[in-house]
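Format notes (please read before filing issues)

Several people have asked whether sequences and structure tokens are stored in separate files. They are not. Every record keeps both together, in the order shown below: the sequence lines, then the token lines. Line labels are part of the format and must not be stripped during preprocessing.
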Amino acid sequence: MLARYQIKMSLTLPGFVGDEKQIRLFLTVFYWLATHGSGWPFSSISSAQLDRQYNELKTHKVDPIAALQEELFWAVCRIRMAHGHYVGYCARFEDVFGEMASFDETIYKQELFAKRDPEARRAESCFFYFYQNKTINFTPLTENEQALQEFLLSQKTPANDVVEALGPFLTARFPGLSADQLHRSTHLALNVLRVSFSFYLMDGNYFKQADFFGANKSSYREQRQRQVFLEFVESLPDRPAYSAFKRDPEAFAELLFYLFVPVLAQFTEEEKVKLKLLVEPTDILNRALFDFVDDLGIATRLPVCADLDEADLVVAVRDDYMASDIQRWLNGHANKVIDWYLDATVTDRHQLYERIYALYQQKQAAVNKLALKETKARA
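Then the structure lines:
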């Protein structure tokens, strides 16, 4: 895990060797997962004193969890600096954050860090602002976040080029998707900017909390969408300015994919299993079946007026009042029919899910085969 970010453990002098920025991100996640904010892991820095100093910052967070995480990160930075480890000057950080209106505030006071020159303290402040602004979230945008979005959009960097190119690329791959739909969500627009600028500023992938957990990607869902985002990253110009995004294309594509899943979900109906329920919708005993089907992300329930031939699978409760033409259809398409009963058990629902899942895999395989054919044709 550490080797992915060029971090090594020194055996001669206990500690970490590598990019100081990545080391600090790793340590912050490590201590957060160890404490979750319920305890303070450092004895050399007073949590109460640091909390007071943090709340004096113009950019301090109101959300208590976000504030605790940023205070933990600030403590890690200050301890690393006290032991002689500094992030150093980085032109990209200075170019971006040096023009922010909120950057006129001195994060590291001269009286506390008198041994460091102004340039070193400014570089450290840039990295602190980076940490504050990189985190993806879905809470209502604050005034600072709205200002951040406007500021990032006004920049002229490769990160802006990536964001600008993403919209047309996706609308070309997903018919019916418009640029307006991509930018309608302010959270989506800002989070895409955050991810793009984070990769640009860190010159590639950076340490995240998700790196501590196994990559349990669902292999049966949205494979086509993942491939589309990977194709987007690979389509970026092969120039040094865009190397930050192409150095680890899978990581960049995966983050973009997760951000866009809610938007793209409405354009994947052809991959879902189409279910037709021939049951009495007003019967309270059948309500559990409707809820069960509606909660499945791999199936969609056809409307009552839909033709039986449109369905991939029909779930039917047969009774004496069923029309004769429907009875004949069910008898003639036994391979597409599951008989349902009012006293259905958990086992019955599990068997229904297994049947739906098998059909979904068949449809997914067909879609992936078509996508591969289209990719080869474009190549």
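For reference, the curators noted about this record: Residues 149 and 190 are 6 Å apart (CA to CA). The longest helix spans residues 346-378.
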